[in-house]
Design a protein that fits this description.
The complex is a heterodimer of chains A (745) and B (707). Chain A is of the alpha/beta class and 745 residues long. Chain A has four domains: 182 residues, Rossmann fold; 103 residues, no CATH class; 160 residues, 3-Layer(aba) Sandwich (Rossmann fold); 171 residues, PCRA, domain 4 (Orthogonal Bundle). Chain A contains 29 helices and 16 strands. In chain A, the strands form four sheets. A six-stranded parallel β-sheet of chain A has the order 3-2-6-7-1-8, with helices on both faces. In chain A, α2 crosses α3, α17 packs antiparallel against α18 and α18 runs antiparallel to α19. The longest helix of chain A has 24 residues. Chain A starts with 5 loop residues before the first helix and ends with a helix. Chain B is of the alpha/beta class and 707 residues long. Chain B has four domains: 139 residues, Rossmann fold (3-Layer(aba) Sandwich), CATH 3.40.50.300; 101 residues; 211 residues, 3-Layer(aba) Sandwich (Rossmann fold), CATH 3.40.50.300; 166 residues. In chain B, the strands form four sheets. Chain B has a six-stranded parallel β-sheet. In chain B, strands 9-16-15-10-14-11 form a six-stranded parallel β-sheet, sandwiched between helices. The longest helix of chain B has 21 residues. The two termini of chain B are 33 Å apart. The interface between A and B is large, with 78 and 78 residues.
């Protein structure tokens, strides 16, 4: 049963109209918003054919909301799963477009391109353009660099261009401009910009590729949903009737098009509750997302603004540190433009008697490392600290957060080397990867059926960690060794007698459980070999049915089968090895793929006590741990628009250290807005603007990092690759404040 | 329904006087077709020559009850009644009276015979015209794969023919109704341009796609005295069933033909019109009530129970008003049950168990069960089939299970063709050779097929080496001499018979099959499924060859290569239904998309509705370049097609589907809901919402089991 705090109870008084809620980290906004949705349903506010629409940021939050609302609704004695719909923006866009594909220029069987395929297409289009226009590099690369003699830099340049194109396309779609229209405007204004020409051409080719496949990408989905809503008034009215209340979570990360879609759906007199924390807006760089939308909404006439400022998550020292960062930024940041990066309210500890009180405070709750160390030493110190702390705290949760994935991987390596158990938050989950890996290995084996090592690899994977075989590990290993010695697989698999394999392997009697498993494996393998001529989706389903029993794994196989069937349609020349590569990408975590296991639908730190989670700051959003390490808080990863700062977006090999992406996107925005001075702005202006934007977001990222910790927080930094980096400015300030307070204490 | 006895009202139809014109209507499941079959027999018994009877249906499968009687051994000797669709009639007349219209209609070579296009060959010609236009930016604002783009352009032409308006009006009609962004309307002009270019090409080259066949027949042949005299004297009696599924131009023709028939029995299903996206027009069909002297209405369902009647009423009310005011009788729960699963495979497992229980323990014949879904993907069909096979159940569907390129036997044959003609430069890859060997050579398992590929296939030149060329005796033993000898026979056959690469592909494949693959020692020997698959390939290749203009088209090898390319890219898939496929096998459970099931009119005792949450039950087949409701006689030109129309059309369509399904069920409907669909998405369409309203209404009643 949910017992609201006083501030939460205030929110639950809502009946209709527009309300904006500024929430702090750990203020229980998911619980409050879920309770509000359930309350609207159970009070009979809506009709049978209406729904409360909840829009949130990520898939994991969808399940979290659904589960909570379902439990509230169940408590009220009503049917769960009806009367509400929880969607991410993409999910919502999909629902809208799916209902009226004609208005979006789609057939009803349109498919959504998976991120990997989309990246491949952009990469191919960009590479083709660069091949045809080698002169492009000369115009942007530092004249002292000869790309022909520096293959690594050449590769870097190509990768940068692909990444710039991908962001350009995504942002152009968010701004709802098509390549033809862009071209028209460029010609109209006689804009001559080789980078822009390149980006538009790649955009053009990419869209053509999508059309050819009858597909859309995720950005298209959202863009088209807006198009559908704004082109048919009656359809819009129908949806307004269906969703009389819209509750929006994480509103600080609302993008321009999300803002537009929701405004359309709410209508002038609709009911809209937006909850968010502008201090946690960390998806703004090179996107149209902005906390301004929420800030402006809170000030709109007719909007009731509320605070959810109580938080029971962290102890007082950590709360104080987060509030100090907020205060210092607003009052004392040396760059005036950055002072608005964070805003009120401050975090207030939970009131006395709260069911979720703050953890007890202690003097060593916060530690900020002052000394300059290089990256390896920093990691070494963190690993050492964890090694000392963990044995005595097996019932606690702990996370190491790094600004970038590459750094996180180094930490993982070091922890593994130290024998410390780790947990990863990855693009796909372990169970998804396991199933995918098994299917991949089967395809590999079928594509080279005479190779005994490939057959053995499948069996090894199937027996790995199998609890049934726990008691006969040495027999398994023995069998495995014998298997690898077989030279003529046809004799093993297609023996004249059912027991022929025993003779071929020259093994003593196997334990019955292993004997059974191996016999079944051979029978299955023969069946899969006979199924090899089937279309790839059907082959995969055949294999999956023999191997898996859990509904999640079978559903996942079905989803993978459809994915490969889509690949087959787009690449009629694909054979088993190519399909195996597709699966390998998912299995090795190079490709984002959502499965159906509980892990896929939301990460729960509490399930991993006594182990170390390694992740990026971004992925940690919304989660909390007893102890948190924040790494690499230097002026490269957290710059502050200072003379001595360096920026990731400003590549060293680009002439004048321009941030090409920023320059290009600024021009794109100017074109879309018909802002003529913006179109002809001198090079470098957008680069400088981007520094402010990036530094601002990094301040909020640091705030997010700090507020992940419940009981203790350790912040470290390093001197970077070139040994020139220094402690991030805000960290220096926090360190000084902390010292001062400690001294006073 | 008992097949042997007629009700009194059915008897009345059977006993109609020889010279009578009757319009018979009523809901599905009232025994109208059954009565009509008896009427046909009665006419013959009364001395009417069989071949003067014309049985007209909108789709050939609907004539099955008539065919069944005609095929019986004791059916009258002599001629048979003609069973035709208007399209079939048009083609017949065009073949017969071609010289009469060829010149008048402006065909490019009136002295040469017409060449009838199938949907696929029409798509092929159209694709050659449209592809260059796509390159220069046509259809940029729509996202549709090219094959569907072509089919929609053809569909527009077909609509103009079946509704009866000029192809030049297509874009105007569509643009006037377009409520979306004005900039998008340009695609309609582009679609029309392509359609007109295609029409021009057809006229130049004597090519007749369906639209041209119908419009030439309706506008030029039928009005001509010669053709009309021929038809009116050949057919004196008409039985026209399922008129609601036919299009207005068909109705026009029959209406004007009516005075010439000695007798006519015209039948219409109320709540029918499932083929509306193909031009079916039940409103237009209603005209026959005036054209006939007598109207008879059947009302009593021969199939459904009172409980199912309650379900139909409740669902229709709920779909129409989104609420149910009146009380629902508690007995309704005998008519249906809800079964909830989180994942697709769980639902499929449950259905399999349930079907098995019905068949094994409750004495239900498999053909009395149908599993219905809004769409039936190949993967889904395969998944159900695998489960059914495991459970010892047999399954049938209303279409070939796979397109040509997805059929393993066909791929194996095409691999041999590629091997036979290396000069075509269509070198097969190792995977293809391995699979061909596995599928074709008796006793060749997958590993031996792999060994053959490794040692006897040269990837670089794309040819097979002799088995004797293997120097390594151990390898020969591993492959086995038996398999080696069969391989060698196959290789030699290819070598000997591939000398002439100007041989037509269909003929080459027929010989390959007849002389080698169907012989002992090869796996197609006495394998009827493979024979059927190869037959499909031969037929498709033959049709393709026949429509290609020998004078203007490239030489045969190029034609053959082009054919293989088209199969491999999926443009040619031969997924149309042939006669033998339309008959579901007895002893098998039918798995079908709801729409196809309704179109085949086969009542059952038990229905399983898979995934009632799917939007697919509700949304129409969307085709951005065309519009079934706008390119329609009932649409007022110039009006805007708004969401209100869209919503109402979908609602009507769903009500019609529900009504049609329930009327074709005599005992129980098992409705399955799924947490996430095949793609892993959650869906909550109109059907599940309507069912939910019924459940809520039942919620607090004592003795309710569902909720």
């Amino acid at each position: 049963m949910f017992k609201p705090r006083p501030m939460q109870a205030e929110i639950l008084k809502y009946q209709n109209g527009k309300m904006g809620v500024a929430a702090v980290p750990g203020s229980g906004k998911t619980a409050t918003l879920s309770a509000l949705a359930a309350q609207l349903i159970t009070q009979g506010t809506i009709y049978d054919d209406q729904e409360i629409l909840i829009v949130t940021l990520v898939n994991s939050a969808v399940d979290n909301f659904s589960t909570r609302i379902a439990s509230f609704v169940r408590e009220a004695g009503l049917l769960e799963n009806m009367g509400y719909r929880v969607r991410t923006l993409h999910g919502l866009a999909h629902d809208i477009v799916r209902e009226r594909p004609d208005l979006a220029g789609l057939s009803e069987q349109f498919s959504i391109l998976d991120e990997n395929e989309s990246s491949r297409m952009i990469e191919a289009a960009a590479a083709a353009y660069l091949r045809e226009h080698p002169e492009l590099a000369e115009q942007y690369i530092d004249p002292s660099i000869d790309l022909h003699n520096e293959p690594k830099t050449h590769k870097n340049w190509n990768e940068s261009i692909t990444s710039i194109c991908a962001n350009f396309i995504s942002q152009a779609k968010d701004l709802q401009i098509e390549p033809a229209e862009l071209r028209e405007k460029i010609e109209k204004h006689h804009l001559s910009d080789p980078l822009l020409e390149m980006a538009v051409q790649v955009y053009f080719e990419y869209q053509r590729g999508l059309r050819y496949r009858g597909s859309v990408d995720f950005s298209d989905l959202v863009r088209l949903a807006h198009r559908v809503l704004s082109s048919d008034r009656e359809f819009l009215e129908r949806l307004r009737y269906r969703w009389p209340y819209i509750l929006e979570d994480e509103a600080q990360d609302s993008s321009l098009v999300q803002e537009r879609i929701l405004r359309l759906l709410v209508g002038p007199d609709g009911n809209w509750v937006r909850v968010g924390d502008t201090n946690q807006a960390i998806y703004e760089t090179f996107t149209t997302a902005s906390p301004t939308f929420l800030r402006d909404f809170l000030r709109e006439p007719g909007v009731v603004a509320k605070d959810l400022a109580n938080s029971g998550r962290s102890n007082k020292s950590i709360i104080r540190l987060a509030n100090d960062l907020n205060k210092w930024t607003r009052d004392a940041h040396p760059v005036e433009d950055l002072r608005s990066s964070l805003s009120l309210p401050y975090i207030i500890p939970a009131p006395p008697g709260d069911p979720q009180p703050n953890p007890p405070d202690h003097p060593q709750s916060v530690y900020i490392m002052k000394n300059a160390v290089n990256s390896e030493e920093e990691i070494k110190k963190v690993v050492e600290s964890i090694r000392n702390w963990l044995p005595a705290h097996q019932d606690k949760t702990v996370a190491v957060l790094c600004p970038i994935g590459f750094h996180a991987e180094k930490v993982v390596e070091a922890l593994e080397f130290a024998g410390i158990e780790i947990v990863e938050m990855l693009k796909s989950t372990q169970s998804t990867r396991r199933v995918t890996r098994i299917l991949e290995k089967v395809l590999v084996c079928l594509s080279d059926p005479s190779a005994v090592n490939k057959l053995a690899a499948v069996f090894q994977l199937l027996t790995h960690d199998n609890p049934d075989l726990e008691t006969c590990k040495s027999d398994v290993s023995n069998l495995f060794n014998q298997l690898k010695k077989v030279r003529e697989l046809e004799v093993l698999l297609y023996a004249d007698t059912p027991n022929g394999w025993r003779k071929t392997l020259q093994l003593e009697a196997l334990p019955p459980v292993l004997d059974r498993k191996f016999s079944k494996f051979l029978v299955d393998m023969v069946r899969w070999q006979n199924a090899a001529p089937l279309p790839i989706d059907q082959l995969l389903l055949t294999v999956g049915r023999d191997l898996f029993t859990s509904p999640q794994d079978l559903a996942l196989t079905h989803k993978l089968a459809l994915l490969l069937e889509f690949s087959a349609r787009n690449h009629p020349e694909y054979q088993l090895p190519q399909f195996a590569i597709d699966l390998a990408e998912i299995a090795s975590n190079e490709r984002k793929f959502a499965g159906f296991s509980e892990d896929d639908t939301g990460f729960n730190p509490e399930a991993h006590k006594g182990k170390v989670l390694v992740s990026t700051f971004h992925k940690a959003k919304g989660l909390e741990w007893d102890r948190v390490y924040l790494l690499s808080v230097n002026n490269y990863d957290f710059p502050s628009a200072q003379e001595f700062d360096n920026y990731k977006g400003e590549k060293w090999f680009i002439a004048n250290h321009l941030n090409l992406e920023a320059e290009l996107l600024s021009k794109l925005k100017a074109i879309v807005n018909d802002d003529i001075p913006g179109m002809f702005m001198e090079p470098g202006y957008a680069t400088r603007e981007a520094r402010i934007e990036y530094s601002s977001e990094r301040l909020r990222l640091l705030y997010v990092g700090i507020t992940r910790a419940r009981e203790s927080l350790i912040i470290t930094w390093n001197t970077g690759r070139r040994k020139e980096a220094r402690m991030a400015l805000p960290l220096e300030a926090l360190h000084a404040i902390l010292e001062e307070k400690n001294a006073a204490a | 329904m008992t097949e042997s006895k007629l009700t009194s009202i059915q008897q009345q139809i059977a006993d109609l006087p020889v010279q009578s014109r009757v319009f018979l209507h009523g809901p599905a499941g009232c025994g109208k077709t059954f009565a009509a079959v008896h009427h046909m027999q009665a006419l013959i018994k009364a001395g009417v020559p069989s071949d003067s009877i014309l049985i007209l249906v909108p789709q050939r499968t609907l004539a099955e009850p008539f065919k069944k009687i005609i095929r019986t051994p004791n059916f009258t000797s002599g001629g048979e009644p003609a069973i035709l669709t208007i399209g079939g009639l048009a083609q017949r007349m065009l073949t017969l009276f071609w010289p009469l219209v060829a010149k008048e209609k402006g065909f490019g070579a009136p002295d040469k015979p017409p060449r009838f296009l199938t949907l696929e060959t029409a798509q092929y010609y159209l694709s050659n015209l449209v592809e260059p236009l796509l390159q220069i930016g046509y259809f940029e604002s729509v996202t549709v794969d090219p094959n569907r783009l072509y089919s929609q352009i053809l569909d527009n032409l077909n609509k103009s023919a079946v509704v009866g308006f000029s192809p030049e009006e297509i874009s105007t009609r569509l643009i006037q109704a377009w409520a979306g962004k004005p900039s998008q309307a340009i695609i309609y002009d582009q679609a029309q341009e392509c359609a007109l270019r295609f029409r021009q090409l057809c006229l130049q080259q004597n090519l007749l796609d369906f639209s041209l066949q119908l419009s030439v027949f309706a506008n030029h042949l039928w009005p001509s005295l010669l053709c009309r005299q021929y038809l009116t004297s050949t057919y004196r009696h008409l039985i026209y069933d399922n008129t609601e599924e036919d299009y207005p131009v068909a109705h026009d023709l029959i209406e004007s033909w009516m005075p010439d028939f000695e007798s006519a029995l015209i039948i219409k299903d109320e709540q029918g019109g499932f083929r509306s996206f193909m031009g079916a027009d039940p409103i237009s069909a209603s005209r026959f009530s005036k054209a006939c002297e007598k109207t008879i209405k059947f009302t009593e369902s021969m199939i459904k129970t009172p409980e199912l009647e309650h379900l139909e009423t409740a669902l229709t009310t709920s779909l129409t008003y989104h609420k149910i005011e009146s009380e629902i009788p508690i007995e309704i729960q005998n008519a249906f049950s809800i079964h909830t699963f989180r994942f697709y495979p769980q639902g499929l497992d449950w259905i399999t168990d349930q079907v098995k229980d019905l068949v094994d323990n409750q004495g239900v014949r498999p053909e009395e069960i149908v599993v219905l879904t809004p769409f039936l993907s190949d993967s889904l069909r395969h998944s159900i089939n695998a489960r059914f096979t495991n459970a010892g159940l047999s399954l049938s569907t209303f279409r070939p299970s796979r397109g040509l390129r997805d059929e393993p036997a066909i791929n194996a044959v095409l691999t041999l063709v590629k091997l036979a003609f290396p000069t075509w430069n269509l070198k097969p890859v190792k995977d293809e050779i391995r699979i061909a060997m596995l599928l074709l050579i008796e006793d060749c398992d997958y590993i031996r097929a792999d060994l053959i590929t490794q040692v006897l296939f040269g990837q670089a030149n794309g040819i097979l080496r002799s088995f004797d060329s293997v120097k390594n005796k151990e390898m020969q033993q591993r492959i086995s001499f038996l398999v080696g000898e069969r391989f060698e026979r196959l290789r030699l056959w290819l070598e000997e018979n591939a000398i002439d690469d100007s041989l037509e592909l269909d003929i080459f494949i027929s010989r390959l099959f007849g002389e080698l693959l169907s012989q002992p020692g090869y796996k197609f020997h006495q394998n009827f499924d493979s024979a059927a698959a190869v037959n499909r390939l031969v037929e498709s290749a033959r049709k393709f060859r026949q429509v290609m203009n020998i004078e203007t088209s490239p030489k045969t090898p190029d034609l053959n290569k082009e054919y293989i390319r088209l199969v491999e890219t999926g443009i040619l898939s031969a997924q149309y239904m042939s006669d033998w496929e339309s008959k579901t096998r007895s002893g098998s459970v039918l798995v079908s998309p709801a729409f196809s099931y309704l179109m085949n009119n086969r009542p059952v005792r038990f229905q399983f509705w898979l995934d009632i949450g799917s939007q697919g039950w509700w949304t129409r087949l969307d085709q951005p370049l065309t519009h079934p409701y706008v390119l329609n006689r009932n649409w007022q030109n110039g009006k805007l097609w708004s969401d209100m129309h869209e919503n109402a059309a979908n609602q009507q369509s769903l009500i019609r589907i529900m009504d049609g399904l329930i009327r074709r069920c005599s005992e129980h409907i098992f409705m399955c809901t799924l947490g996430v669909n095949e793609q892993g998405n959650e869906e909550r369409g109109a059907l599940i919402m309507a069912v939910q309203t019924i459940l809520r209404k039942l919620q607090n009643k004592p003795g309710v089991k569902h909720v």
